[in-house]
Design a protein that fits this description.
The chain has 112 residues and is α/β, with parallel strands linked by helices. Strand 2 and strand 3 form a beta hairpin.
């Protein structure tokens, strides 16, 4: 059960981090592009906590490692690091398939 007021999602890369926060009471969405590194993220999250109450943080596991998760956990922020294979992905539209669709076998036989 989500008991924090604000949910924060991070898109973590080596050189930059995109952060989005959703205040669940007001519906306000806050976005930031932060430099890579833990200090900028912790400063931004501390500011969010001061203005929008308790937070919960989530980001996708990747090649940057878990140092950010450890840093946030040391500051008593609940952190979820999600495995990329377990995240929901949007469905592809039918016209975006990589291979063209073959006509049914009966249709080709009728066209001869």
């Amino acid at each position: 059960m989500f008991t924090q007021r604000t949910a924060i999602g991070l898109d973590v890369h080596a050189r930059s981090i995109r952060a989005t926060a959703l205040d669940t009471r007001s519906g306000e969405i806050l976005e930031a592009k932060l430099p890579g590194g833990n200090e900028a993220v912790t400063t931004w999250i501390t500011g969010i906590t001061a203005n929008h109450g308790p937070v919960a943080v989530a980001y996708e596991a990747g090649p940057t490692g878990f140092s950010l998760a450890r840093t946030l956990a040391d500051l008593n922020y609940p952190v979820t690091v999600a495995a990329p294979s377990k995240l929901l992905r949007p469905c592809r539209r039918q016209d975006q398939n990589r291979r063209p669709r073959r006509p049914p076998a009966g249709t080709t036989a009728q066209s001869r």
